[in-house]
Design brief:
The complex is a heterodimer of chains A (about 775) and B (about 160). Chain A is an alpha+beta fold. Chain A contains 25 helices and 19 strands. Chain A folds into five domains: about 140 residues, Pleckstrin-homology domain (PH domain)/Phosphotyrosine-binding domain (PTB) (PH-domain like, Roll); about 180 residues, ABC transporter type 1, transmembrane domain (ABC transporter transmembrane region fold), CATH 1.20.1560.10; about 110 residues; about 230 residues, Rossmann fold (3-Layer(aba) Sandwich); about 30 residues. In chain A, helix 21 packs parallel to helix 22. Chain B is mainly β and about 160 residues long. Helices cover about 15% and strands about 40% of the residues of chain B. The mean pLDDT of chain B is about 80. Classes of the chains: A alpha+beta (about 775), B mainly beta (about 160).
Amino acid sequence: MKPEISLQTPILPNDWQRVLGELQFPIGGLGQILAWVELDLDQNLRFEKSLLLLLEKSLVWTNGKEVMSWPMVAENTLVHGDHAGVGHLKLETPHRLESIWYFTLAVNPHVLRLQASFKKMNTAHHVHEEHVANEYDKQICPVCLSPKPANSDSCPTCDPEDDAPPSTWTLFKLWRFAKPYQNKLLLGLVLTLLSTGATLVPPYLTMPLMDHILIPYEKGQPIDFHLASLYLLALFGAALLAWGLGWWKTYLLALVSERIGADLRNTTFEHLLKLSLEYFGGKRTGDLIARIGAETDRICVFLSLYALDFVTDVLMITMTAAILVSIDPLLALVTLAPLPFIVWMIHVVRDKLRFGFEKIDRIWSEVTNILADTIPGIRVVKAFAQEDRELKRFVDSNKHNLQINDRVNRVWGLFSPTVTLLTETGLLVVWGFGIWQVAHRRISVGVLIAFLAYIGRFYIRLDSMSRIVSHTQKAAAGAKRIFDILDHVSSVPEPINPAPLASVQGRISLKEVGFRYGNRAVTKGINLEIAPGEMVGLVGHSGSGKSTLVNLICRFYDVSAGSIALDGRDIRSIGIADYRKCIGLVLQEPFLFFGTIAENIAYGKPDATREEIIEAARAAHAHEFILRLPLGYDSLVGERGQSLSGGERQRISIARALLINPAILILDEATSSVDTTTEKEIQKALDNLVKGRTTIAIAHRLSTLRKADRLVVLDKGEIVEIGTHDSLMNAQGAYYQLYQAQIRQAAELVEGGAIGDTVEENTEVRQEESLQVIAKNLGGGV
Amino acid sequence: MTNQSHRLERDELGRLIFIDQAGARHVGVYPVRAFPITAITAGISIMDSSGRELCWFPDTASIPLEELDLIESELATREFMPVIERIVKVSTFATPSIWDIETNRGPTRIRLKGEEDIRRISGNTLLISDANGLQFLIKDSTALDKGSKKLLDRFR
């Protein structure tokens, strides 16, 4: 479903149309409404609906009882803001506040749209001018007006699939993974049918055993041993057959379900790796790990155990019912009569238990959370001597766990006896009716015994069938969480048939680049041409859009507007892997994988020779410290490995970038997390790296960008200055101020004994302290 | 009495103006509470529009009355944490779930994205964030009526 973007105002909901009609307000027809918002908060921030309309000549507000209107005056402005989930819209004249409206962020997109229309009318005074799809319109879903993810057609708010709770139908989506195994599955089904049939033979044989052997003996006839052994042999044969078929069936289906589970895991991980950074930014690592690990396993267990059991149970019950009816319809009717009641009883008890088990699950995660909290923070716990407190927390939540468990166990303990009781009652009915029937010579004793044998199995099956409900729900929830990942379309799509990338010069051109995150513009209108081999430094406050720009150049995200080109070719038309291979990235926090140092250096080029690795390490000034380690290049690093200092790790990551010999180099705060001495060493390594490559560097310490050919100063997502260090210093603009502020800060650091706080903050603290002293002296309520 | 050297007033545009000891005017200042949930009367700070503290009141009792009125009225428009008094209906026990609730700010409908959006602050106080980022408070989950408790129990 891809509705075309329509720029017309969506139609007013019916109830408001009615209200407006009743009010008899002269708005001159609904067609006159340019924009409308249904506000959901009133002046006192209570949940109360009201309507704000933008007309050609005025702004109208109504709550169904009162109507207020303000004529459109050119100097009036609508100011939008939000705080703690509540948005406000102020109508201001140059001198005073006319009105203020509040709303929750649910209607924020509508409000922004109204504000935009208001602004447009006030500036242009051309109401009927041709609407051009502006950047904002492209970024919102045309149906519900809520912001949608960048460069994607689906709208998370409108998409009903995302909104619905996991339904059992989700499980049918798994068919995609089951399809390769359909022949095996079919065989499994046939085997299930046969083995179930085989298990039903022994009770059937009790009938002739009774009627032809035992009853005649009671009546004084000798036992026909030949016939008896024939029946017993048949009984044993049936049991053996059921055993063999059951084993084959279980093995086969478990095999298939394991394979389906493995395929599911592989496909999910493969898909996950292709998703953009935007996706990972919004997810917690633990959650993703759980989805791929535990959820696929849960589905697998469901398929191999519960689904199989369920099918067996259904078959068993239908077959039993059929056999019973074929033997004696009347007795069958009496036997099956209490069935619905028993099913209902079992269901009720199960339901109760299910919530109990869910609760136990949650409590259990609380217990593990305490562990996950305390163990990584053990240094803090010990340093502040709070072991007792953590222990108490753990004991408390365990106690909670016990309480809930006790409650569930009370019901749980009741469950099996209840089923037994119901079974016995059922048996009782059959016994009673059966004896009466036998007395009237309507059925033989054998038939009655066979019925009794069948019915015992019957009720046990009912119990296990009812169990499927909760497992199905859990598996459905798991399947939904997995398909959440699988159905997510990467916001950085791979081009179709990309032409291979020939030798790269390294010219990067950004044209009118804009990027939005949700409904917030992060960068806008950036134009920048970076020549091959040039080093450009990105400078600005934190949050000025430096990292966003780098992420866009790396194509971790796609631009919302404009384009980025490499050697004149739009990067969206280059294969993603091809493109990233010509980029070397050195991050603030270098990440080392678990493995040897040599493997880590060769991460981007696994087939690199030892000589190449050593050469890269030498150039990165890492060779010597690596040789000082006891195992040299074979030392294990990363998590659980040799601990390296920040500077050492950084030099390994520089060697890693050097080894792939990239045309473009991106240094994202590469020296920020190390002290100045280490920075000098890294700087030497970086100088080797930068040589002859197009380099984009972000640095917090402006001094590290001295070598840059040009500096680009960013502020609030826009370029404010471009130039060399000297020219920017002479210009005395934004860069000059940044530089001065940093020098001041450095001086203060030295002065303040370099213990964190700047002098400025210190004076503030002192001021506060003195205020408190004054307050105390005055006897104020401190 | 502690901070008589400053002045607080509201201008025609509805903004708060703080005039400090040196006579400098800070336009668009706003008050914040330090402990908005656990101790609403303890600790109120006046911040300027760029988020720097201008003035600190350790307690609402230490604020001159006329200023307290201004502060309270400003806080009223900034503080929005409806207290859930009753959960009327939930669309489903699996998340995402739509809840019809009654709050101290009137009845409304919220969308709960996941069970992890129900967080315990301390004791029986719960904080529930809905899909739009609004936060709702349940002051004492044990004090809710039986029906609400039952519904809530299904989610935590």
